[in-house]
Input
Amino acid sequence: MNYRGTLRPIGMFLLVLVGSMLVPLLLSLTEEQSTYPTRQAFAVALGVTVGIGAALLALARIWTSGSGDSEQLHRKEGLFIVAVGWIVAGILSAIPYVVSGVLPSWIDAVFESVSGFTTTGASVITEIEILPRSILLWRSMTHLLGGMGIIVLFVAILPALGVGGKFLYRIEATGPSVSGIHPKAVDTARTLWLIYMGITVVEILLLWAAGMTFFDAVCHAFGTMATGGFSTKNNSIAGFGTHIQLIITFFMFLAGVNFSLYYQAWRRRFLFWKDSEFRLYLLLIAAAFVAFTTNVLHQQNWDLANLGIVMRDGIFTTLTIITTTGFGTVDFEQWTPLAQGAIVALMFVGGCAGSTGGGMKVVRVLITVRWVWKQLEKAYRPKAVLPLRINGQTIDREIEESVVGYMLLFMLWILSGVILMLACNHDMVTAITAAISAAANIGPGLGMIGPTENWALLHPVAKLWMSLLMLVGRLEVLAISVLVLPGFWRRY
Output
């Protein structure tokens, strides 16, 4: 491990975080100071973050001065920077919650902060509507930054990283592989952020036109496109009208699609239907929508008077779960056990690779299904050559192994969460769905963390472990998992 080379990127990364804190600080200057001293809170957060970032940059300059060591990043340093960057961001971004008194407990504050940056959307705040707008905006901004990946933003605006930047991008970007939009990681990151922000601005305008206040439109658009789920209302999206719910439903769908397909469409290459993952994504959405709608109609004795509302809630629930957004309009704990089981299955799947969604990713599910099918065929045709193809291209053995390895690690992390939750005396349903929800970056689950409940009552140790699981899921398992290996910390 070349520790010298990691100081400067982490220090510059913290200065990027400082820039994002300026926005809620400016908003806090327009608010009346009452219960929560938000000005002081954001000022302290800025000061601490600037201090640590500047100290790291100064130490990097002193340490490398005259040493002749290269600061070029290799894969090990890239993993280290991504993991440490997200952990530090989660801790420093918790400062406004603690200093303002919104969440006096550091464990709760870190949980809320990590949930925001990982776009999980799980919250321990029970009364959201009484919070100052600056705090609400900060919660939503953590979604904005975490959605496409604050590390990708970091690479996009800091081209001084040079070639090393591509390692940060590859590790941060979601999915087993990401189609290159440009040959350079900096250009790719910039393009992704332009697409991401462009769609976000369109959603803000549509929500505003549909009746939301501009502030609410901004916060909910950030939560939608990041597939995060933080809302400015206690009852999430349920309090808004049908038009607003349908707009958010549509943009959740967009957020779950591989963003490289949007870039290709902008270049007049419409590859959506040619993409196997996108077709499976549509199929899963259609199947879940039919299942949920049929389930509710059956519970209502096939009363078609409310068919429109049932269909609206069915498609919203489908999209909010499969894209791991976590917004809510209905209490799906009132649905049948079969429907709840389908919801848990969708939690595992998640969005497409290269999207802002969490979960295992649709393409991994596709590769796994075809890999299992290939193993079954080889059981009676051992000498047959059976290539695994996606979009007409043969998947090499390295990718097959990485997908299988990811699946195993993902399940082991979830199992660790279930065991720890049970050790904290939580019930089985809560333990299982909380571990899945955290690792897949969803937010709601069943039991104590149902769509109408809150994560505030979980044991403090459970909250810390769930925070770790959120990071594990957001950083594609490996970036956190390698930290436990002794060999990872050895110098070259």
Q: What stands out?
A: The chain is about 65% helix and 0% strand. The two ends are 6 Å apart (CA to CA).
